[in-house]
Design a protein that fits this description.
five-stranded antiparallel beta sheet, 24 helices, six-stranded antiparallel beta sheet
């Protein structure tokens, strides 16, 4: 009875509920995964057995949470608690078992002060209670108990039975937790192993693992692919991998490995591995780390081999580059130096030291030490520009005079420096050179003086003369300045630029002339206009040559062309007036010949038909001549009209060739290829282009038999080539044939009639359509005119 009383007293002392919310207890309870789990036979057997042995109406395996108790197993529990499988702590005797971590033995709860208000008495019928704590990992998770609905004095035998059954339940719960933990560890280990395999097969390195004795137990597929070996072969011999290491690297690698295996220190080695397929070697960085167990023993080695061949080559190239740079710096005729990002000198070549008389130590502590070498008049400018370069990273370039350390004499140098940046864009070094330009400066001064003398010769009042360098006019005579309205002050200030003086419509021709000047050392005189200082335009004739001893400069001659242009304008006005005046009488004459032909046909008179046909032919020739004169006049006035329409170029050329074939039976007109139907333009004007080209081909190939037309089309353009086998055009005249009234000179060509307007009109029509026309020709073999037109033009 004394032990029974002891147990009763312990249970009654455990009324403090603070243990119920203990974090560690709740963690172990959650780890058991028994809360809210389904009933299990193993626990049901214990509750049923307890009820039978003690003849008790209720038996429970109760798990106490922080705010409820859950019944993992129950026997004889009344409703609604059996269905709910839980009840609040207000109905719990088991909470006292848990909070005290001691058994609770109650004969009649109504007589216990700490239980008399517990709702389990009226709602469940709990009168007598016998419960033992379920202790796992030193934490009371719940209670195994029996309940009687009437007072019950529990015997020593009954208490022993419940204690024993409680220990069985405790053992089952502990075993369950242990199994769950073991399963979790196993799953984590499997997952870790799987993750390692996935990682090892996806990383770009060669990956391997090996046992403490150095024998490999795994290599990834990348290792096998590179070496051409197999996992089985690598696992069979701890030194199998040495066959792939370069012979020169094997002993060092073996020594590193032996040291790592003996000491357990991490392994690292750079060596060359042979590709099993190509036989070539590449540099790899091999690293391995030991993995230890809880006792510190090595259980495995994990290793990788990273391809560093490109890095090694880059290092070698960098080393060679630095060596080459030093050799180059010492052999260059310039003074060569380098500084850190702060501008302090780090290196000077021997030529720099010889010229300045300074040692590296004298300039390595003060970034402005070199200023003592610079001419006093140049120092401030040098300091400002160098400081700006250091602040902004901009390239440094400055002409300055440096004193010779031995003689004290100054010479002009062109000093340049460029910053070197790292991957992050930070300046890490400056490289600089000083190039002796003293002779060049003296030559420039002499040239300037020579130009001043030459300017005296340029003061001609008949023709304008200027000297250009690039696009800039650097000198000019008074006549040119007077012609254009500029002043000497404009010339000295650099405000006269031939490109700026050239109107847009003459810019292409001017650039062509300067290209000729650059390649031929002279330009063929050509006509253009200059925009004068006051905005007016001056028609001029321009020619020029390159200075023999100064190829960057050219002298240009400018002739005022105003009088000639005025005369041409009068001629154009006359042509326009005359063509309009002639058009009316020609129309009337053409109408009269048509009426005459009809009258003769009615009268049946055929004797006069040949004379009438000859008259009509001549009238058509004069009409075509007048039409061309009108077109020329309209082109000059910018009034030539165009119609925008879709043109079937194939049909147009067929129509033209059929018409011309009838009037020119001496030649066979051959058309090859197709031009498509996507051309937008003026059908009649385009017909005028190809009629003129084909007519010319017939006219200028009197001894040939064929004229050929080749058509080709792309997505963007259509090209038509008209080829004859006739007289040909001299090379020097090809660029002029598209000029107004220009005709190719030569005894054969002079016999062929024409005023030189056709190709001028053709070129204008093609240009208006956004196309181009070119000619290839050889005298005595014929000419090919190529017309290219955009496929679509709105």
């Amino acid at each position: 009875m004394s032990s029974k009383k002891s147990l009763q007293s312990k249970g009654e002392e455990g009324k403090d509920s603070s243990n119920l919310t203990d974090a560690e207890r709740l963690r172990v309870l959650a780890k058991s995964k028994l809360l809210d789990s389904a009933s299990e036979e193993v626990y049901d057997r214990f509750t049923k057995l307890a009820a039978m042995l003690l003849n008790s109406p209720v038996s429970l395996v109760s798990l106490v949470d922080k705010d409820r108790q859950y019944f993992k197993s129950y026997y004889g529990l009344p409703e609604p608690w059996a269905s709910q499988q839980q009840m609040p702590l207000s109905h719990s005797f088991c909470q006292y078992v848990v909070s005290s971590n001691q058994p609770l033995i109650v004969t009649d709860a109504r007589e216990k002060a700490f239980l008399e208000h517990n709702l389990a008495i009226p709602d469940v019928g709990t009168i007598a209670y016998l419960g033992f704590p379920l202790v796992v990992e030193n934490q009371a998770l719940g209670s195994f108990c029996v309940i009687d609905t009437k007072p019950h004095a529990w015997s020593e035998r009954e208490i022993g039975i419940v204690r024993e059954l409680a220990s069985f339940v405790t053992t089952e719960i502990a075993l369950r937790i242990e199994i769950a933990e073991h399963q979790q560890v196993t799953e984590r280990l499997q997952e870790s192993e799987q993750n390692f395999r996935v990682l090892s097969e996806t990383v770009p390195q060669l990956v391997w693992t090996m046992f403490p004795n150095g024998r490999r137990d795994y290599v990834n597929q990348r290792w096998c692919d590179y070496t051409g070996s197999t996992r089985e072969r690598m696992q069979s011999d701890r030194w199998a991998h040495f066959q792939f290491i370069h012979p020169d690297d094997r002993e060092g690698n073996r020594a590193f490995w032996q040291h790592a295996l003996q000491t357990g220190e991490p392994f690292e080695s750079e060596h060359r591995l042979r590709n099993g397929h190509t036989g070539t070697y590449r540099w790899f960085l091999a690293r391995a780390m030991p993995v230890r167990n809880e006792t510190g023993e090595i259980v495995k080695w994990f290793g990788t081999a990273t391809d560093i061949d490109e890095q090694k080559r880059a290092e070698q190239q960098l080393k060679e580059s630095e060596e080459n740079w030093r050799v180059l710096a010492e052999t260059m005729p310039q003074l060569v130096w380098s500084t850190g990002p702060d501008g302090v000198h780090e290196y000077t070549n021997q030529r720099w030291r010889d010229y300045t008389g300074l040692t590296p130590e004298q300039v390595q502590n003060n970034r402005w030490a070199h200023l003592q070498l610079i001419h006093p008049d140049d120092r401030e400018g040098t300091r400002a520009l160098w400081q700006h370069a250091l602040d902004t990273g901009a390239m440094y370039e400055h002409e300055e005079r440096l004193s010779n350390g031995q003689t004290g004499a100054y010479r002009w140098f062109l000093v340049r420096a460029m910053s070197i940046r790292d991957e992050a864009g930070q300046i890490v070094k400056w490289f600089g050179t000083c190039t002796d330009i003293d002779d060049q400066k003296r030559m420039q001064e002499a040239l300037r003086e020579s130009q001043e003398r030459a300017s005296v010769l340029m003061n001609s009042n008949i023709i304008g003369i200027f000297v250009e360098e690039g696009e800039q006019i650097v000198d000019a005579n008074d006549t040119f300045l007077r012609m254009t309205g500029y002043t000497r002050e404009d010339l000295r200030a650099g405000r006269i630029n031939w490109r700026h003086m050239t109107p847009p419509e003459y810019l292409a021709r001017t650039q062509q002339a300067h290209q000729e000047l650059a390649t031929q050392q002279s330009m063929t005189p050509y006509e253009k206009e200059y925009v004068c200082q006051d905005g007016s335009r001056l028609p001029v004739l321009v020619g020029g040559i390159v200075f023999q001893h100064h190829p960057l400069q050219a002298i240009t001659f400018v002739l005022d062309n105003s009088a000639r242009k005025e005369l041409e304008q009068r001629k154009d006005d006359f042509i326009s007036m005359a063509s309009h005046e002639l058009r009316g009488p020609l129309t009337a004459l053409k109408l009269q010949t048509t009426l005459l032909r009809r009258q003769l046909a009615k009268q049946g008179t055929q004797a006069s038909a040949p004379a009438l046909s000859s008259m009509e032919t001549q009238i058509n020739k004069v009409t075509r001549l007048v039409e061309e004169l009108l077109d020329v006049s309209k082109i000059q006035a910018g009034r030539l009209e165009y119609v925008q329409e879709t043109v079937d170029l194939d049909a147009l050329l067929r129509e033209i060739t059929e018409t011309l074939q009838q009037s020119s039976p001496s030649h066979t007109l051959v058309v090859r290829g197709t031009g498509g139907t996507g051309l937008i333009g003026d059908r009649d004007r385009l017909g005028q282009v190809f009629t003129n080209l084909i007519s010319n081909a017939i006219k200028y190939s009197p001894n040939a038999e064929t004229v050929e037309m080749d058509l080709s089309a792309s997505e963007d353009a259509v090209t038509v080539c008209v080829c004859d086998h006739g007289l040909g055009i001299p090379r020097e005249q090809r660029d002029k044939i598209f000029e107004r009234f220009y005709r190719v000179s030569g005894p054969n060509q002079k016999a062929i009639p024409g005023l030189g307007m056709g190709l001028y009109i053709v070129a204008e029509i093609v240009r208006h359509h956004g196309g181009s026309i070119t000619v290839e020709s050889e005298v005595g073999k014929g000419s090919t005119f190529q017309v290219t037109l955009p496929m679509k033009r709105v």
